[in-house]
Amino acid sequence: MLIALAAVPILIAVAVKLSSRPATPGRGPLFLDRITQNGLFVAVTALVVCVPLFLPLTIGVVAGDTIAGEANLGTLRYLLLAPAGRIRLLLVKYAGTIAFCCAATATVAASGALAGVVLFPVGPVTLLSGDTVSVGESALRTMLIAAYITVSLMGLGAIGLLISTFTDAPVGAMAATIVLSVTSQVLDNLPQLDWLHPWLFSHHWLGFADLLRQPIAWTSFGENALLQSAYIAVCGAAAYAKFLNKDVLS
Amino acid sequence: MTDLGARESHTGGMYSLAIETHGLVKRFGHRPAVDGIDLAVPRGSVFGFLGPNGSGKTTTIRLLLGLATANSGDISVLGKEMPRSLASVLPDVGTMVEGPGFYPFLTGAGNLMRLDSADRHAPSSTRRQRVHDALERVGLGHASGKKVRAYSLGMKQRLGLANAMLRPRELLVLDEPTNGLDPQGTREVRALVRSLAAGGTTVFVSSHLLAEVGQMCTHAGIMSAGRLVAQGPLDELRSSGESHVLIHTPDVGKAAGVLSRLGLVPGDATGTGIPGNEASGRDGTLTGTGLNGMAPEAIVAALVTGGVRVRGFTVENASLEERFVSLTGEGFDVAG
Fold first, then answer.
1. Which domains does chain B possess?
2. pLDDT of B227-241, one tens digit each?
3. From CA A98, how far away is CA B132, in angstroms rounded?
4. Do B67 and A82 touch (CB under 8 A)?
5. Which ipTM score applies to this complex?
6. Helix (H), strand (E) at residue A146
7. Contact check, Cβ <8 Å, B67/A81
8. Do A73 and B102 touch (CB under 8 A)?
């Protein structure tokens, strides 16, 4: 899955490089038109492209598999009899999911940066606020965006973990997690439901533009982190309650 | 139910029963899978947990090991109350529950390493050595580096046994350990169980194979439709089964009459119906069941007084199989 994720930015970079027409500003994914001027934008563009579907897809697969996958293999009962301890197992599984969130975004960012440096000129970057920052500073900003997206995905990871405690079929848990992530984004686009929007876990997913201003506006980062930790707390508590009382019959 | 004397001798700190349950009930929906069982597995015994498919054996084992929660009843394992002491008891219990479960993408040794490292208290310094020893012990030494995906069912079963023996255990709980094993494998498992028992380990082994239990167990319990219908030392179980008499005589009809008067149930041992053999003068064989503790010599005396020419008379104890069938019913249907 990490390889597939790494392929996305490379695909973007190669496609932009090969097309002779310069991309029309304002069309296509965010920052796409800037890539030809500065390779550093490949990583940011790739992250933007991956956030709505690609990254949630991989997180859904990993998080949905946590408990249900073990149950399906029949290894869950042996882990519990080892004894691994139910709380400990749940914590380790969630830690694994978070590790994957980090690895996934880092992979996209790193592969994007590499493709950008190889295929396009690299220079100081003009931010959304009009200021120009050095290459090193912009690399730092890219890492910040990757961190922002990692945090964004943690809530989804907790949802996947919770769903995974309910079933012995990993595919079902994966699909349910991914469907939820898409549903949340669809609801977030319906203006009639604007009262609901601040509560949707995907509401701040694309809100990392503030990190490209000078000085950095941390409000969206903070709001996102708060929302995600609320999801982690609620889903984590529910997963704990469910898993602690679960009859392991697989 | 045959009760064990050991329960009365239960002492404070040291336990005499490795597994003890009182009124254990587990329901799935409204249907009770385990319906009020009182298990008593003496320490140091090899306890055969018998029962037809669907009689609640595996569910009971899940309850004992804290994989599932009982609706009511008490459990104590190794003298400690379960599931409260789960974390301190389980490291001393080696288990194999409902077949092996392993990661197909890891090697045999890799699987054991992973499961062992899941136990916080397992010393990691001896891990490699312990995994190696356990694999050697079940005859998987040469296949330890192979991916489990390529293992046969019997090899997975052996790997499951190796997992149960990763550490010195006080209690082994083995659910159908010889499933899928070849005859040599079955023999090895029996030998393994005996050697472990000789070392002081209590072994609780579930099975639907009577011969297997007869060959390696000292005690047995018999489950039927969620209830424990009998338990105790194997010899006691065998002898408490209904014994019957076999009578060789030419006067089959007359003998049947005498047996009926004595309150026994006469039957035909040859399975051809009771023939009137008096005329031909040839011997027939008659069985009599329902002795109810009547002395065999009294039966012989009554037969002779009744003018039956008794040419042979045997008292036969019930085999474990007869006992099993009489307790669990003849039917082949899985208990719903």
1. 5-239 (3.40.50.300), 242-316 (3.30.70.100)
2. 998 899 988 887 666
3. 34
4. no
5. 0.83
6. helix A135-164
7. yes
8. yes
